[in-house]
Amino acid sequence: MGWLWTIANLFVLFALLLIVGVGSAIFLEAFRRRCNHDQDQGDAHAVFEDPNSLKKVPCPWILDPAEKYISLIIPAYNEEHRLPGALDETMNYLQQRAAKDKSFSYEVVIVDDGSADATNRVAFDFVRRYTIDNVRVILLGRNHGKGEAIRKGMLHSRGELLLMLDADGATKVDDLEKLENQIRAVARKELQLQDAPSSDLSARISDIPIAAFGSRAHLEEKALATRKWYRNFLMRGFHIVVLLAAGPGIRDTQCGFKMFTRAAARKLFTNIRLKRWCFDVELVYLCKHFGIPMIEISVNWSEIPGSKVNPLSIPNMLWELGLMSVGYRTSMWNIRT
């Protein structure tokens, strides 16, 4: 029986070493990201390049007053094939709406997340066609992750409303009106509670923190029937972990179609730290922390070939969720108010 006792002791020792090792790794990573986050506050000094005049255009900053009605932020990593079609559709919609409504102003901010293909060439072609006032490109130099690309785009946008959407065009751009209308409805209620005149809505909407989350939850039953069993298993497991990390409230945290008022974006994107897949979950967590109203709205969505997400992404997602939980619960990640 002595050898059984020895094996049991070795097993317990191995488990303790594993826990300490993982805990130390999370602690060190949280510390490193806290330092990097503090350094990133120099982002306000970045510039855009105008490919027509080759002049540098100073970046706006999220703390500046809004100059446009809406900003569309598109993160792009190796998207030279899918980006042109999505941008054509987006620009057609925006131009048609601007032609009907003279008060409607917009910008599209494309964030090239260190692409190794011709994504930046495609993006700058659209700047030449539509001018740097309407289309702007941020080059990150190396790949940081979707969350970081969207954070940079949000911080350097000029809109009263800020919409993030994917470069593949999986969600129809005109669905932004669904999110926009719900945000305006919530803003109107907020203003009524403050006894502000309804005519003041357009001037005040950017000052009221509200977040609208596009959702594919209504398509879940069909997706479960068509996906392979192991993908459904992994996805259900991921949803449980998200529930534990951020709590209930949003059924589909991972849809890449989200809209924020400028006031909400200021609070959220000056605090967000996760750089890759799970930044969406951190957004939910931060919305709850700040008491920002969250609206979940069904959108039209279709599967576009070429997705960057695969089963191997799940361990990275779990790592980020663990990192977020440790970072906030130990107060290593301070939240700026």
TrEMBL record:
Chief location of this protein within or outside the cell: endoplasmic reticulum
Listed pathway(s): Protein modification; protein glycosylation
Family listed: Belongs to the glycosyltransferase 2 family.
UniProt topology in membrane: Single-pass membrane protein
Keywords from the UniProt entry: Endoplasmic reticulum, Glycosyltransferase, Membrane, Signal, Signal-anchor, Transferase, Transmembrane, Transmembrane helix
Single Gene Ontology MF annotation: dolichyl-phosphate beta-glucosyltransferase activity
Gene3D superfamilies linked to this entry: Spore Coat Polysaccharide Biosynthesis Protein SpsA, Chain A
Cellular location(s): Endoplasmic reticulum membrane
Glycosyltransferase 2-like domain location: 71-183
Protein name per UniProt: dolichyl-phosphate beta-glucosyltransferase
Residues spanning the signal sequence: 1-25
GO CC terms: endoplasmic reticulum membrane
Biological process (GO), any one: protein N-linked glycosylation
Enzyme category, top tier: transferase
